[in-house]
Amino acid sequence: MSGRGLTIGRLAESAGVNLETVRYYERIGLMPEPGRTPGGHRSYEPEHRQRLRFIRRSRELGFGLDAIRRLIALSEPGVETCREVRDMAQDHITSIDAKIADLQRLRRVLRQAVADCSDGVAVRCPVIEELGS
């Protein structure tokens, strides 16, 4: 391992995550094991930073850890994967659309409950009633 490797702190900072996230991704196998310094400290190479940024961006886009694991496998050189990745992305879009529809429905219900609320003390509160239904 070269002396110019990144520490875990610098790796985490450069990828916009915290130290525990790096350790967690290593523990579950999303991040490859880093080399070690003679003193036993982790030493990361640019490939680790690239992988960590890939994982972080995938998480930002809402992909789960299993999907990210598959995307990493599909990103390996020599693997013809565009169709499979496209299908994964399309499935994810379908899931996002369903969540958006659920959130819009939730917003309508809450807006109506708030609109039905009086400003003062009421015997029955529409928001409480909606939560209990």
Automatic annotation (TrEMBL):
Gene: merR1
All copies of domain HTH merR-type, residue ranges: 5-74
Highest taxon in the source lineage: Bacteria
Pfam families on file: MerR, MerR-DNA-bind
Protein name listed in UniProt: Mercuric resistance operon regulatory protein
GO molecular function: DNA binding; DNA-binding transcription factor activity
SUPFAM superfamilies xrefs: Putative DNA-binding domain (SSF46955)
Keywords annotated in UniProt: DNA-binding, Transcription, Transcription regulation
